[in-house]
């Protein structure tokens, strides 16, 4: 059973005869302890406060039965780890610096659904978490209410933990082999930049130890495994 904040994505799942429903990861309408396993891939890094990120993991744990496990993936600040570049950085050469684009049509509404909010509290951090991360050597600086978030240059290393990643909507006709919702690599030319609408999506990229520290602050789960995988920090949790 799948769920997503975007109705358009859920509709695509329905068309493919998958079971999915619309919900918010902070409040999933399922019984506590009803799942053997939960998977959260590339979701939690879109929540803009430490409190929300913690609440999302707590909600994930609530769904699990005792002994059930959860797998979490979030984008890593360290796109070069142990002298190895992530696939994200490596693809820069193969795509000549091109950025991700998404087909128009239904997907245009999909992207609009996922636009970040502009609440002043959206860049707040838990003071305790900041102190913990500083102890770990992580540069977790809070962003003030009057600050502007930096816009990331795709296929480059991250310069800030809180940032906006540009997504270019692809205009024109769709190629036969392309399906709605497919993430594509498209040109970086001046013409394509002028023709393609750009959406900025909020990301909080996690530094080493940050996701694990959040998970260990919950007394309802234990960390089974913590690891790095191709530009992502990953965690396997077990419900106690």
UniProtKB/TrEMBL annotation:
PANTHER family per record: ALKYLATED DNA REPAIR PROTEIN ALKB HOMOLOG 8
Name by which UniProt lists this protein: ALKB8 protein
Signal peptide range: none
GO CC terms: cytoplasm; nucleus
Organism: Neopipo cinnamomea
InterPro entries referenced in this protein's UniProt entry, alphabetically: AlkB_tRNA_MeTrf/Diox (IPR051422), Methyltransf_11 (IPR013216), SAM-dependent_MTases_sf (IPR029063)
Pfam families for the chain: Methyltransf_11
Keyword list, A-Z: Methyltransferase, Transferase
Gene name per UniProt: Alkbh8
GO molecular function ontology, one term from the record: S-adenosylmethionine-dependent methyltransferase activity
Keyword Methyltransferase in record: yes
Gene3D superfamilies xrefs: Vaccinia Virus protein VP39
Residue span(s) of domain Methyltransferase type: 1-72
Single Gene Ontology BP annotation: tRNA methylation
């Amino acid at each position: 059973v799948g769920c997503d904040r975007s109705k358009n994505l859920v509709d695509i799942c329905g068309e493919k005869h998958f079971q999915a429903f619309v919900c918010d990861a902070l409040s999933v309408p399922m019984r506590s302890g009803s799942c053997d396993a939960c998977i959260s891939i590339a979701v939690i890094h879109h929540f803009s406060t430490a409190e929300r990120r913690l609440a999302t993991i707590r909600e994930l744990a609530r769904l699990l039965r005792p002994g059930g496990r959860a797998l979490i993936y979030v984008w890593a600040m360290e796109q070069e780890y142990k002298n190895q570049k992530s696939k994200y950085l490596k693809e820069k050469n193969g795509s000549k610096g091109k950025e991700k684009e998404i087909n128009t049509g239904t997907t245009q509404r999909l992207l609009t659904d996922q636009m970040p909010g502009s609440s002043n509290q959206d860049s707040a951090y838990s003071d305790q978490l900041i102190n913990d991360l500083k102890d770990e050597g992580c540069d977790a600086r809070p962003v003030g209410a009057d600050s502007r978030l930096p816009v990331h240059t795709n296929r480059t290393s991250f310069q800030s933990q809180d940032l906006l990643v540009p997504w270019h909507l692809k205009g024109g006709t769709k190629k036969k082999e392309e399906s709605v919702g497919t993430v594509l690599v498209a040109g970086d030319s001046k013409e394509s930049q002028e023709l393609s609408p750009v959406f900025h999506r909020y990301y909080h990229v996690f530094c080493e130890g940050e996701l694990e520290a959040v998970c260990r602050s919950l007394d309802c789960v234990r960390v089974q495994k913590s690891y790095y995988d191709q530009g992502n920090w990953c965690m396997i949790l077990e419900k106690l």
